[in-house]
Design goal:
homotrimer; 261 residues; alpha+beta; eight-stranded antiparallel β-sheet; 6 helices; 21% helix
Amino acid sequence: MSPVITLTSDWGLRDHYVAAVKGAIISRLPEATIIDISHQISPYNLKQGSFILRNAYPAFPPGTIHIVGINTEESERTPHIALLHNGQYFIGTDNGIFTLMFDSLPEKIIELEITQDSGFFTFSTRDRFVKAAVHIAKGEPLEALGNLRTDLNALISMKSQVNGNTIAGRVIYTDNYENVFLNITLDELEEAGNKRKFSLNIKGRKHQVNQLRSAYTDVPDGEIAVIPSSTGFIEIAINHGNAASLLGLHTDDVVLIEFDN
Amino acid sequence: MSPVITLTSDWGLRDHYVAAVKGAIISRLPEATIIDISHQISPYNLKQGSFILRNAYPAFPPGTIHIVGINTEESERTPHIALLHNGQYFIGTDNGIFTLMFDSLPEKIIELEITQDSGFFTFSTRDRFVKAAVHIAKGEPLEALGNLRTDLNALISMKSQVNGNTIAGRVIYTDNYENVFLNITLDELEEAGNKRKFSLNIKGRKHQVNQLRSAYTDVPDGEIAVIPSSTGFIEIAINHGNAASLLGLHTDDVVLIEFDN
Amino acid sequence: MSPVITLTSDWGLRDHYVAAVKGAIISRLPEATIIDISHQISPYNLKQGSFILRNAYPAFPPGTIHIVGINTEESERTPHIALLHNGQYFIGTDNGIFTLMFDSLPEKIIELEITQDSGFFTFSTRDRFVKAAVHIAKGEPLEALGNLRTDLNALISMKSQVNGNTIAGRVIYTDNYENVFLNITLDELEEAGNKRKFSLNIKGRKHQVNQLRSAYTDVPDGEIAVIPSSTGFIEIAINHGNAASLLGLHTDDVVLIEFDN
């Protein structure tokens, strides 16, 4: 079976960066299957990148190698690393993105010691991460890439908070349809709500929504549907409308879920 | 020969949706060749999606499987379906897009009965259409996916109309160069015109263009060229200019082709 | 090893053009590995296209075939051509893009004589370039595609100029992070500077930057870093900022590098 390598970055699709990395991969590993996760992440946006990657990678087969090209600058505090987690590999920089992505520490963390292939230090993805990916794809041991580490740099991800009849959550992502994802899981909502009806309180304005829906079309056009999304998080959508714009919601904004007494 | 599967959607390229579908495909069918038709279709825009897909799919080899992820919500009125048409397969929702795309009924229409792979109902493309595609790619009979149907939901596509010396057409698509495509085929224009010179009447303003051109550069920079495009439809372009903006044309706007007496 | 074919164009990713070309390729050559260089080049922008392609193609393996779909209109003055250069193949139109891309004449230049596959003249990439690419991928001689030529149409690329203590350069490209690339190579800067400190003079305003940096993060957030980029050209960046906007720089603008005495 041909090795699968994915790419995630904030390069956009106009520049030469994506193609240069793909060329570097197939030059060394012609049989590789290369799949783009996303290159449209806002520049330097680790939160956005982690949300996209955490929702994409579980669909990939065991052994897949994910190259993560966001904020790749290496420093003593933020080394280049390769990880093994849930049977898949991740190569990138220890800038906090991996603690945002994973709910537990990876099985294995290696700090890369392999030399990079150019004298330039602005394109580590092409010049170092590809080399590490090819090494792994050829079945060589992860440990040969560098030294074992036991911890990762952590970025704080805000957790939702339950307070009496209210869950206070925050917007973690807005998708192409302007559906809004909260940092509240289905389990958290069900436990706090105990089957009670609920409303959304967005910036002081109350929207009675009563219950979870399973599809956007379970409400009339233009109405709010709160849905347990396929990401595991709760999603606020407006059937055939743009929820983020219409509700004035941006990343990190607070949304209160208020249960009826 | 490895199976070819294409993807068409309104997901955009930033979110995790495209990658999650590709991961789901190669997890089941590592040898698949996956090709994106387009993911930049405007949200919910069946007309735009049908134009893009109808002009892309004929280039693909027999047996290609096209997954269509636009307005995928299933209902009694709009079931999930798999089609065989012109030797290629199409999987999507019977929301009208296929009648916009095809000029005749497909050879075979199957209403999907296979169960989907998750408890979520917002991502049928990943959780149900991929399963159907893999089934077909493995050479199993289409009939095993569900029940035969004999008809499709129809969306009305406006036809051009000939009235005396005039063809009244409408804008059906505007491309990246702002070239404008009308719902008038070369055959229709030639039959109505019978080699006469013609002008365009756009919102009451007359543009004498005289004759069809075969290339944009057959007119000087900044001038209008009317061209039998490779889509089969008539195209209005401005050599090195933006026809849609400069002529104020949007989808569904009327354009009159007026033949000289 | 499966043949590698890349695509570069100004089509964007919404329309059917990219997919139609890929379908045409795999219909003839199912084993091809197709890689997009970029389809986000601004319409008709040969300078931008040449910068992207010249920085992407060296990463590809020998024998790679690059199809270039920008300004493809054929005329007596601008024929369709196939080139061999540095062990890789290029197929496109002799509109000047190749002289912008290469620092020397290609080893071989062939003017295409093969017929195209449709009666339309607006989609040469699909109808003629793919045919030439498949021919080359199958190992047939380049000469069978048409007649040898000895020269290419040249577009003038502005060279940087040294004048006393100053190098006058111009902006040749701005990337997704708004990093600005000048037409000044590392060698040119080092030779003229002879290890002296320097400042940038941008539209009459002087920015003391002193020395080259090797990484964006070698300066504090918000400060200017001048870096020998992996493209071979000098790059002006602002650490975690948007250099092009903040410095008011656009393609072709002049930037003076002034060395201290």
